[in-house]
DNA sequence: GACCCGGAAGCGCA
DNA sequence: ATGCGCTTCCGGGT
């Protein structure tokens, strides 16, 4: 008999901590009276804008810009801006990159940039102002219709900048409008233009560490400090008010120059809006205001490695998201483990609660298509032994085809056809101990495979395999 | 004891 | 009816 736990992660902010999803889905997401839908960050920002200020920043006059900046100072507790550096209208303001903003107002550039992004994006979504190639609302092009024609998977080291430009140019095309809820625009977590965010260091979360109930959220890794910004004490500012940290814009610029980010700028719009676990995690990881870093945080964004800082708390969030209130880390981690077999995730060996995305979001969004394609092409594997053989063969061929014949969907039928058959095949029943041996064999081979994949070249190899597919 | 793993069965949804 | 993406439960290993 199951007991549904109604205990949400404790702490003052959990109930109010908005999940990064669309207001239109809040009824679905918060169907229960004890979990009222929090206002979206965008909604808050819009609602709190000074009266008389047009919602479209690009229409602002110079005076409007000044009003906006003053409002930002108050609202986000920012240091006073040097107004001389902002003698411009709204259109010019929107053209400023995050770096530009950071230089004009050190420590607040990120906040300003994000707020402007949200406002511009919202205005664009409402169709009031068409996107222009240079606006922050320049959206990624619609995802290519064919898996064979999908955009080049980001080559992490060098291509993101070019991706942005092509994506921005595509977004400027009239037909590239994507109508989706505003918050999920940042499902990618990435900004909408070339000036990418260094989210991992941009903001401290307004969520206090104790927001979740697990008590297991202590760090067990020496380098935790690298990815988890120091939590701020609970503040009276709204949760929608990101708090700047003392990271210079130059640091961000340097970071961007040296690393690709896990989220490319030309991320296609998520159509799952967090209903899928990987999407949920990525939305949290890439929340523009980093509200969830006490739950989950990038450990190395470049390689997709992240750490679940608060397993129990994160599981509760996921449970809220899916309306499975008895969700816990054990169950959620089982779902994560299903991602192993489809090469979406892997476990970072030896580090608790650390996982690594093996595919970037662009690939993930395309996985369904790849799955269908591979269902047609992949050979049938009907026995565990053949699975092992196949896996071993894959391993041998790994240098050239990292993901050859790897399943990309989560269904048992397609990824492990032998399993269903084994259940119904009376002629060759698989005894429990045999299953475990088989499991161990498969596990060993998979482990070998995974270990061999665990190197910095993995993404490059993945990309190569993707290209080979085509 | 917590974490991690993967099998098994089932559920809700599209 | 079917497949997908989990959810739930579990036994076992570390």
List the strand order in the largest sheet: 3-4-6-5
Beta-strand share of residues: under 5%
Poorly predicted spans: 1-16, 22-45, 127-270, 369-406, 412-470
How many strand segments? 6
Give the SSE order as H and E letters: HHHHHHHHHEHEHHEEHHEEHHHHHH
Cα(first) to Cα(last) distance is: 50 Å
- Helix/strand-derived category reads mainly alpha
Helix content: 40-55%
The shape is elongated
Radius of gyration: 23 Å
Q: Strand count, sense and closure of the main sheet?
A: 4 strands, antiparallel
Average predicted local confidence, pLDDT: 53
| Helix segment tally | 20
What does this structure look like?
- There is one protein chain.
- The chain has helices at 26-29, 41-48, 62-75, 90-95, 98-104, 109-125, 160-171, 182-185, 199-202, 224-227, 249-258, 277-285, 311-322, 329-338, 361-377, 384-396, 412-415, 417-424, 432-453, 458-469, and strands at 203-204, 243-244, 296-300, 305-308, 345-347, 354-357.
- It is mostly helical and 470 residues long.
- The strands form two sheets. A four-stranded antiparallel beta sheet has the order 3-4-6-5. A two-stranded antiparallel sheet has the order 1-2.
- A hairpin with a 4-residue loop joins strand 3 (296-300) and strand 4 (305-308).
- The radius of gyration is 23 Å and the shape is elongated.
- It binds a DNA duplex (14 and 14 nucleotides) through helix 14, helix 17 and helix 19.
- Residues 142-154 have a biased composition (Pro residues).
- It comes from Parnassius mnemosyne (clouded apollo).
Write the layout of secondary structure elements.
Layout: H1 26-29, H2 41-48, H3 62-75, H4 90-95, H5 98-104, H6 109-125, H7 160-171, H8 182-185, H9 199-202, E1 203-204, H10 224-227, E2 243-244, H11 249-258, H12 277-285, E3 296-300, E4 305-308, H13 311-322, H14 329-338, E5 345-347, E6 354-357, H15 361-377, H16 384-396, H17 412-415, H18 417-424, H19 432-453, H20 458-469
Antiparallel strand pairs: 1-2, 3-4, 4-6, 5-6
The structure holds a DNA duplex (14 and 14 nucleotides).
């Amino acid at each position: 008999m199951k007991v549904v736990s109604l205990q949400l992660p404790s702490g003052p902010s959990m109930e109010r901590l908005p999940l990064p999803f669309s207001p239109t889905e809040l009824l679905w997401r918060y169907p229960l009276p004890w979990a009222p839908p929090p206002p979206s960050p965008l909604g808050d920002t819009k609602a709190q804008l000074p009266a008389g200020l047009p919602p479209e920043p690009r229409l602002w006059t110079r005076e409007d810009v000044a009003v906006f900046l003053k409002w930002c100072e108050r609202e986000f507790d920012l240091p006073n801006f040097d107004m001389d550096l902002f003698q411009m209208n709204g259109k010019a303001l929107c053209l400023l990159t995050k770096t530009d903003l950071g230089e004009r107002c050190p420590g607040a550039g990120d906040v300003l940039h994000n707020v402007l992004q949200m406002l511009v994006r919202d205005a664009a979504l409402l169709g009031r102002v068409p996107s222009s190639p240079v606006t922050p609302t320049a959206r990624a092009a619609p995802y290519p219709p064919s898996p064979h024609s999908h955009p080049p998977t980001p080559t992490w080291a060098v291509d993101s900048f070019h991706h942005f430009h092509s994506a921005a140019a595509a977004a400027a095309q009239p037909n590239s409008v994507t109508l989706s809820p505003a918050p999920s625009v940042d499902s990618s977590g990435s900004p909408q233009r070339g000036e990418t965010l260094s989210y991992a260091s941009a903001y401290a979360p307004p969520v206090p560490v104790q927001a979740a109930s697990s008590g297991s959220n202590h760090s067990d890794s020496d380098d935790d400090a690298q990815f988890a910004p120091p939590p701020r004490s609970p503040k009276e500012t709204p949760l929608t008010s990101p708090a700047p940290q003392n990271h210079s814009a130059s640091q961000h610029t340097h970071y961007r120059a040296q690393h690709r980010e896990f989220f490319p700028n030309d991320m296609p719009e998520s159509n799952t809006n967090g209903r899928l676990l990987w999407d949920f995690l990525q939305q949290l990881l890439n929340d523009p205001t980093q509200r969830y870093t006490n739950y989950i945080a990038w450990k190395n964004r470049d390689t997709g490695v992240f750490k679940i800082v608060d397993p129990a708390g994160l599981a509760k969030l996921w449970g809220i998201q899916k309306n499975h209130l008895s969700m816990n880390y054990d169950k959620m981690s089982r779902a994560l483990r299903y991602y192993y077999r489809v090469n979406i995730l892997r476990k970072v060996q030896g580090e608790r609660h650390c996982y690594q995305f093996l595919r970037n979001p662009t690939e993930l969004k395309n996985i369904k298509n790849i799955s269908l394609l591979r269902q047609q092409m992949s050979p049938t594997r009907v026995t565990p032994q053949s699975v092992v053989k196949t896996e071993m063969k894959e391993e041998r061929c790994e240098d050239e085809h990292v993901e050859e014949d790897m399943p990309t969907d989560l269904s048992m039928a397609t990824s492990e056809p032998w399993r269903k058959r084994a259940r119904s095949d009376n002629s060759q029943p698989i005894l429990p101990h045999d299953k475990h041996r088989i499991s161990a064999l498969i596990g060993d081979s998979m482990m070998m495979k995974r270990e061999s994949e665990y190197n910095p070249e993995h993404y490059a190899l993945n990309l190569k395999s993707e290209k080979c597919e085509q």
